[in-house]
Amino acid sequence: MKYLLLASAAIALAACGNTDGDAIVDNATETMTMDASGDQRPELMTRSFAVMNTSGFEIGQVTIADQAEGGVTLDLDVTAIPAGPHAIHFHTNGTCDLPDFTSAGGHYNPMDANHGFDASAPNPHAGDMPNFDAPDSGVVKTQINNERVSLSIRDGYAPLFDADNTALIIHAGSDDYKSQPTGAAGGRIACAVIAP
């Protein structure tokens, strides 16, 4: 009977635990794994965040994934975006206060670079990304890359989960990739808090 109880306890622990040796990712802390050479490297994260409009309604989500080669990929899946080109940037503060999202602050720029891909060096901001086009339907499903940031703590990349976190902002207009400090992208029409 004693052995049966011990076996039942072991089965219960295995069911609740992580027995395959994979790291468990905690949003608030950095998780390390070993690579093939035995060196430690940060665990790559993937997280999804709600996107809201200036009326406070959720209009979709953005999924951000660390990439093994560095940087992140954003999968943007939103609706009710006016037709035409739009700028999208990471901003300094992880807040999306209505009605205009100015609480998110300026572009995320921990390296003090110039704004825009076409600006004079050093450029661009960590938060700068290419424009995307919204169709007449207003439904946007697109993928965007940013080679300068990360969700996890990784050497050489600006962490989106920093002390005050960050926000993702969609602008009313397109970024001209050179005007300082914002690319003349117009007002802020959608926001997502990027926080653990």
Question: How is this structure best described in words?
Answer:
The protein has 196 residues and is mainly beta. The chain is built from one helix and 13 strands. The protein has one helix spanning 2-16, and strands at 32-34, 40-42, 46-53, 58-66, 72-78, 84-86, 88-91, 132-134, 140-146, 149-150, 158-159, 166-171, 188-194. The strands form four sheets. It has a seven-stranded antiparallel beta sheet, with no helix packed on it. A two-stranded antiparallel sheet has the order 1-2. A two-stranded antiparallel ribbon has the order 6-8. The longest helix is centred in the first third of the chain and has 15 residues, at 2-16. It is globular, with a radius of gyration of 20 Å. The N and C termini lie far apart (46 Å).
Q: Roughly what fraction of the amino acids lie in strands? A: 25-35%
Shape: globular
Distance between the termini: 46 Å
Write down the Rg: 20 Å
Using DSSP, what is the number of strands?
Answer: 13
Low-confidence stretches: 1-35
Helix content: under 10%
Discrete helix count:
1
Note the run of SSEs as H and E.
HEEEEEEEEEEEEE
Summing up helix and strand content along with how strands pair, one would put the structural category as: mainly beta
Query: What strand line-up does the widest sheet have?
Result: 7-12-13-3-4-5-9
Q: State mean pLDDT (0 to 100 scale).
A: 84
The major β-sheet equals:
7 strands, antiparallel
Layout of helices and strands, plus pairs?
Blueprint: H1 2-16, E1 32-34, E2 40-42, E3 46-53, E4 58-66, E5 72-78, E6 84-86, E7 88-91, E8 132-134, E9 140-146, E10 149-150, E11 158-159, E12 166-171, E13 188-194
